[in-house]
Amino acid sequence: MQDYGLSYAASDLLVDSHGRWYFVDCNPAGQYRWLENELPDLGITQALAQLLAGDSERPRRNGLTAAA
């Protein structure tokens, strides 16, 4: 995402019947609420709000850091 200057993007991935992962696309205006509805502990909305508010530190959750 850094190469494209993005702070947020929703990525589409597919997994085939052999367990191989494939990257489909990276959408800078992608939807995420469906995922947060299924897994509310992800805190995606909170992390995006922190980025938009200009917090000095990038949001962290479960050892992951939001992209620059």
UniProtKB/TrEMBL annotation:
Organism: Streptomyces globisporus
Domain of life per record: Bacteria
UniProt protein name: ATP-grasp domain-containing protein
